[in-house]
Amino acid sequence: MNTFERLKPEPGLRVLISGAATGIGAAIAEAFVQTDAHVYVCDVNASAVEKAKESNPKLHVGVADVSNREQVDSVIDDARSKLGGLDLLINNAGIAGPTGEVEAIQPDEWERTVSTNLNSQYYFLRKAVPLLKETSPSPGIIAMSSVAGRLGYAFRTPYASTKWAIVGLVKSLAIELGPSNIRVNAILPGVVQGERMDKVIAARAESIGVSFDEMKAQYLDRISLRRMVTVEDIAAMALFLASPAGRNISGQAISVDGNVEYL
């Protein structure tokens, strides 16, 4: 295998991606399908899952609220049955959480953000790690963090807290699972083009009393390359980390963000 061939994941890779009916997760799923991987996606949105399956019949799909441990257990069991094992877990599911001053954030909003963004990663790991050890010759784990996992993010404390925690989880697991040949990395997307980011910008603009366009311009001014990234940019990094070229990359928090300087 020459150097450039190593940049593509091995055909037949068995991949499980959470929160992957839309957005970044869907782009990652499509990218792996195009490399002849066997891909299982789950999402809390049943209609979005159905549409994902209709648009790509090769996908294996499931519906689950990732903050519910029993539902995650069922997804892992179903994925094992349909894929015959697991080579790569991509912990992608997450929500934006509330925007506001910390004293104005309601406890149930905080707890929902932590449960969806952080606890869910543990729920998948506790069941998937034994499966990776048992069934894969080259296992890997990718966790989706955020640029808010390396920078402070005022008015978005629940979200930022979970994304920083994910980086700590990844770095600790890389040490723990390295002797089992399991690579563990985090991807930290920056400002990603799309409807979800538009909602985040709108909420932040409202919280500090400026227009949407002003807030968007402020976001771009904080990026060295002065542009947002795309979901395809994130998917490309996931493919690289899963390829033979990434076989010695572990314990890393890799930003795909155009170099966001501050938030």
TrEMBL record:
SUPFAM superfamilies: NAD(P)-binding Rossmann-fold domains (SSF51735). Belongs to the short-chain dehydrogenases/reductases (SDR) family. This is SDR family oxidoreductase. It comes from Paraburkholderia kururiensis. The lineage of its organism: Bacteria, Pseudomonadati, Pseudomonadota, Betaproteobacteria, Burkholderiales.
